[in-house]
Specification:
The protein has 593 residues and is an alpha/beta fold. It folds into three domains: 212 residues, P-loop containing nucleotide triphosphate hydrolases (Rossmann fold, 3-Layer(aba) Sandwich), CATH 3.40.50; 154 residues, 3-Layer(aba) Sandwich (Rossmann fold), CATH 3.40.50; 74 residues, 2-Layer Sandwich (Alpha-Beta Plaits), CATH 3.30.70. 38% of the residues lie in helices and 16% in strands. It contains 21 helices and 22 strands. Strands 3-4-2-5-6-1-7 form a seven-stranded parallel beta sheet, sandwiched between helices. A seven-stranded parallel beta sheet has the order 10-11-9-12-13-8-14, with helices on both faces. The longest helix has 20 residues. It is elongated and about 80 Å long. The two termini are 48 Å apart. GO terms for molecular function: ATP binding; hydrolase activity; nucleic acid binding; RNA helicase activity. This is ATP-dependent RNA helicase DeaD. Belongs to the DEAD box helicase family. Keywords: ATP-binding, Helicase, Hydrolase, Nucleotide-binding.
């Protein structure tokens, strides 16, 4: 009870009422986020316009939702609050959150207005009495034209994800919609970035707005690390599969520029046995809802999406964002990377680029004020090693199914002549042989050349295995800091720090190999021995013939746990290309939705 009291007081200190505090407690909110701490007191106490700049996943919905609910007259049935959001998914998400926030306030109704659903049914819901309307610009403008909605008494207008709405070409719709609202309303603009288009809309529709900035304008989340991989364009899809296979617990959003590429990559992944699906504007609302439900339930672990469709994704546990193709607008990268590293967790944003696209990396670095680390597409041997350690970890965590007990005497009889060590070798040899036979002739996917100003080449370095990982509280940044301190090395001597759940890998300049092994020869952390070994997977690149290359475990079901028979039916399609072309890059914006 004491913990609840403290948590409730943190929100009470912002000026929120008892009904919302009860809802906050039910939802398990413990501490207001920075944007909530800054915005809520201002919006509660002042009748003012506001521009709030904060990254995706920082709690912006509650930042404007709590004050809006407090200020609405729930005894009146007229529409007093209008929230505009760029996509159907985000519209529904905001509506559901507002309903949760206001569940103890009798008579307050929030209605979602979006395309792909019955417009007449939505009009009926508003007519019954909707104090708050959450809408996409296109559907709202349609309903205004048909005189199905009256927003002439709106007191509060929220423009959520303003930069994305403008990027999608909704400026004229927003202008037309706001022309039907009172001039003396309060306008609250929330955005992740502040391009000139957002600045212009603030100047045009707002009066002396207060500006709140969480972090720096257009910067990325501090919890997200950024890395890039240089490949030839024809190897882009093969590289994607290698990255997935090197991260067995991956739960990711993969971004493509167009609907066509999104659908094609998703179909290829599904055909190669991955738990994948596409999310883009050509799906029906029912299809989109089913995809998002499966993703939230982790039945889908690789969601391939366009930038527009992904605006409705609100999942805190995304481990990786993979930029299969970089966006045309640099600011859009900030939105993409904001899908991971949420709720205080660390995340990784990966970029697959060709040599001709390297200049974009530097442009993005200037915008997000963070540096990228250049990394190598893992080799087949590295993937084999990761998968085997992951398999061992899964077995160690597996619960014993005692329905196997009646069969144990017969199993013991078959295996009684083998020692424990022999049994372990035999068991893992079954899996290793499958992995090794598949990967042994695979070629290096890393493009030669590239930008030497970023990261390290794997040449001239030694790669190590270390038996600590995420379960020990490490992410790649904290492990790198730990290694720097323990080994007394600078950042330039350490590279390719890859953290898994129960183990990790890292590289050092080869001249420090003896130091690394000596330091960790008898090293303990919290009473447990920390084991460091030289990884048998090569630190540098291998040569070889340029064969069509595998890389993907057809039939693997990562979300269902360890299934040795299903997860190793190998694909033959890593060489399948999904190339970009200048003609595709020039497609109209409608194909990106």
């Amino acid at each position: 009870m004491r913990l609840i009291f403290i948590n409730m007081n943190k929100f009470q200190a912002l000026g929120l009422g008892e009904d919302i505090i009860k809802a906050v407690n039910d939802m398990g909110f413990e501490t207001p986020s920075e944007v909530q701490e800054k915005a809520i007191p201002i919006l509660l106490n002042d009748d003012t316009d506001i521009v709030a700049l904060a990254q995706t996943g920082t709690g912006k919905t509650a930042a404007f939702g709590f004050p809006l609910i407090e200020k609405i007259d729930h005894k009146s049935r007229i529409t007093q609050g209008l929230i505009l959001s760029p996509t159907r998914e985000l519209c529904l998400q905001i509506t559901n959150e507002l309903k949760n926030y206001s569940k103890y306030i009798s008579g307050l109704h929030t209605v979602a207005i979006y395309g792909g659903a019955s417009i007449s049914e939505q009009a009926k819901q508003i007519k019954r009495g909707a104090q708050i309307v959450v809408a996409t610009p296109g559907r709202m403008q349609d309903m205004i034209n048909r005189k199905m909605v009256d927003i002439s008494n709106v007191e509060y207008c929220v423009l959520d994800e303003a930069d994305e709405m403008l990027n999608m070409g909704f400026f004229e719709d927003i202008n037309a919609i706001l022309s039907h609202t009172p001039e003396d309303k309060n306008t609250w603009l929330f955005s992740a970035t502040m391009p000139k288009e957002v600045a212009s809309i603030a100047k045009r529709f707002m009066t002396a707005p207060i500006e709140i900035t969480v972090g720096h304008k257009n910067t990325g989340s501090k919890n997200v690390s950024h890395e890039y991989y240089v490949v030839n364009s024809r190897d882009r899809y093969a590289a994607l599969k290698r990255l997935a296979d090197a991260n067995p617990d991956i739960f990711s959003v993969i971004f493509c520029r167009t609907k066509r590429d999104t659908q094609k990559v998703a179909e290829n992944l599904i055909g190669d046995g991955y738990n994948a699906a596409a999310l883009h504007g050509d799906l029906s609302q029912n299809q989109r809802d089913l995809v998002m439900k499966s993703f939230r339930n982790r039945q889908i672990q690789m969601l391939v999406a366009t930038d527009v469709a992904a605006r409705g994704i609100d999942v805190d546990d995304v481990t990786h964002v993979i930029n299969y193709q970089l966006p045309d607008e640099i600011e859009t990268y900030t939105h993409r990377s904001g899908r991971t590293g949420r709720a205080g967790k660390s995340g990784v944003s990966m970029v697959i680029v060709s040599k001709s696209e390297l200049r974009k990396i530097k442009s993005i670095e200037r915008i997000i004020k963070k540096s990228f680390e250049k990394k190598e597409i893992p080799s087949g041997e590295e993937i084999c090693q990761v998968q085997l350690f992951h398999l061992a970890s899964d077995i160690g965590k597996a619960e014993i199914n005692h329905e196997i007990d009646p069969y144990l005497p017969s199993i013991h009889e078959v295996l009684e002549g083998f020692s424990k060590e022999e049994l372990i070798k035999k068991f893992f040899s079954v899996e290793f042989t499958r992995f090794h036979n598949y990967y042994k002739n695979t070629r290096d996917l890393n493009a030669s050349g590239g930008d030497s100003d970023h990261g390290h080449s794997a040449n001239g370095t030694t790669r190590y295995f270390i038996n600590v990982g995420e379960k020990d509280g490490f992410d790649w940044m904290t492990l790198k800091d730990f290694l720097k301190e323990v080994l007394e090395l600078d950042s330039n001597s350490l590279s390719r720090v890859d953290v898994k759940e129960n183990f990790s890998f890292f590289n050092t300049v080869s001249e420090y190999q003896d130091r690394v092994l000596a330091v960790f020869e008898d090293f303990k952390m919290e009473g447990r021995k920390v084991n460091v070994e030289i990884s048998k997977a090569p630190g540098g690149r291998k040569g070889g013939k340029r064969k069509r290359d595998g890389g993907g475990f057809k039939g693997k079901r990562r979300s269902e746990g360890f299934k040795p028979k299903g997860r190793n039916k190998f694909s033959k399609n890593e060489g399948r290309s999904n190339n970009d072309s200048s003609r595709r890059d020039r497609r109209k914006r409608r194909d990106r939705r």
